[in-house]
Amino acid sequence: MIRAGLLWLSEQSRIFGFIRGNGLARRLASRFVAGETVEAAVAALKRLNAVGISASLDLLGESVTSHSEARAARDTYLETLDRIRHVGADANVSLKLTQMGLEIDERLCVENVRAIIAKARSHGSFVRIDMEQSAYTEKTLQLFKRTLHPEFANAVGVVLQSYLRRTEQDVEDMIALGACVRLCKGAYQEPATVAFPDKHDVDANYVRCMERLLERADYPGIATHDARIIAHAKDFARRSGIAPRRFEFQLLYGVRRDLQQSLRREGYNVRVYVPFGSHWYPYLMRRLAERPANIAFLLGNIVRESLRRS
Ligand SMILES: Cc1cc2nc3c(=O)[nH]c(=O)nc-3n(C[C@H](O)[C@H](O)[C@H](O)COP(=O)(O)OP(=O)(O)OC[C@H]3O[C@@H](n4cnc5c(N)ncnc54)[C@H](O)[C@@H]3O)c2cc1C
């Protein structure tokens, strides 16, 4: 119930203006978001690299409504890739197709994404296409299979979500394609017709898909903070003779930092997803939906601040 409410709020962009002005919301966001600028993101990734952890930088923002917004996002990614190379950091980037203009003009979106992957490839880097709501799953996977993967091979990778009923088949398709996959559980509010409503099914599907990816895919990203699933991955890899260098664990900035560091100390490859930029509201709401403990505190503070202002 709380999760559904927060995920609904994450899609109400008009609330953002109000939330952005709230001091506590900004402080809470700073736990999950590296900062509003490329420089802040690069500073965060240097701190991660210093303890042997790689990063993937994500410029926050989705569902842009104009060509100029989409191009501005593209330019920030190009600048980010240059900054990563300039400082010699171990990092790649993650992006969302709706931020590149998917909803307004597919050709513009492809043009923008091509420019980013071409630069990443020339810098020896990589671009991960994040997965958004199920309304975009088919389009994203078609674009990936028909255009991006044939043109750029493994300089680009995709994300699959274990809460979707279709994902087991998508895992097989991506393995057959030789694609580089990040597997996550899925962060959006989805109808039961397309996604498993029961968390046990989501987790069981995660384990099934993960085992297939570990066994047969090219360098899968195991993106979860679920300690039981991580223990299972380690055990499965050990029993199957899969060396730790053949996959990586991926976690979110500010979430389970203890786990990030202990995995690294155990010798696993670890990559942290580092979001930055001013459009942090939907991202923050999705993170709160995953862990409602902070919500009462946040809402209480917002109500108090608004009463003070009125
Ligand atoms: C690197 C990375 C990339 C991702 N990319 C995408 C994407 O492209 N598309 C997409 O839909 N989703 C993406 N996600 C989000 C993902 O789908 C889940 O919503 C999120 O990771 C929470 O699920 P979980 O696997 O950690 O398991 P859960 O079962 O939700 O959580 C397991 C445990 O992790 C801890 N935990 C989880 N979330 C939090 C939090 N916010 N704060 C504090 N503790 C927490 C808690 O201890 C919890 O008990 C990504 C996640 C990661 C790690």
N- to C-terminal separation?
30 Å
Count of distinct structural domains = 1
Helicity level: 55-70%
Q: What's the architecture, going by CATH?
A: Alpha-Beta Barrel
Which regions have little confidence, pLDDT < 50, spanning 5+ residues?
A: none
Query: Can you tell me the CATH topology?
Result: TIM Barrel
| Highest CATH level, the class | Alpha Beta
Overall pLDDT, averaged? Answer: 92
Global Rg: 19 Å
Total DSSP helices = 13
- Compounds present? flavin-adenine dinucleotide
The run of helices and strands is: HHHHEHEHEHEHEHEHEHEHH
Features:
alpha/beta, globular, 310 residues, eight-stranded parallel β-barrel, binds flavin-adenine dinucleotide, TIM Barrel
How would you portray this structure in words?
The chain has 310 residues and is an alpha/beta fold. The protein has a single domain (34-279), classed as TIM Barrel, CATH 3.20.20.220. It has 13 helices and eight strands. The chain has an eight-stranded parallel barrel with strand order 1-2-3-4-5-6-7-8, surrounded by seven helices. Strand 3 (127-129), helix 7 (137-152) and strand 4 form a beta-alpha-beta unit. Helix 8 packs parallel to helix 9 and helix 9 runs parallel beside helix 10 (227-240). The longest helix has 21 residues, at 67-87. The protein starts with a helix and ends with a helix. It binds flavin-adenine dinucleotide. Flavin-adenine dinucleotide (FAD) binds at residues 130-131, 159, 161, 184-188, 223-226, 250-252, 255-256, 273, 287, 290-291.
Write the layout of secondary structure elements.
Elements: H1 2-10, H2 13-20, H3 23-32, H4 38-50, E1 54-59, H5 67-87, E2 91-95, H6 106-122, E3 127-129, H7 137-152, E4 156-161, H8 167-177, E5 180-184, H9 199-216, E6 221-223, H10 227-240, E7 248-252, H11 257-265, E8 270-276, H12 281-290, H13 295-309
Parallel strand pairs: 1-2, 1-8, 2-3, 3-4, 4-5, 5-6, 6-7, 7-8
Helix pairs in contact: 1-12, 5-6, 8-9, 9-10
The structure holds flavin-adenine dinucleotide (FAD).
Flavin-adenine dinucleotide (FAD) binds near residues 161, 187, 251, 255 and 256.
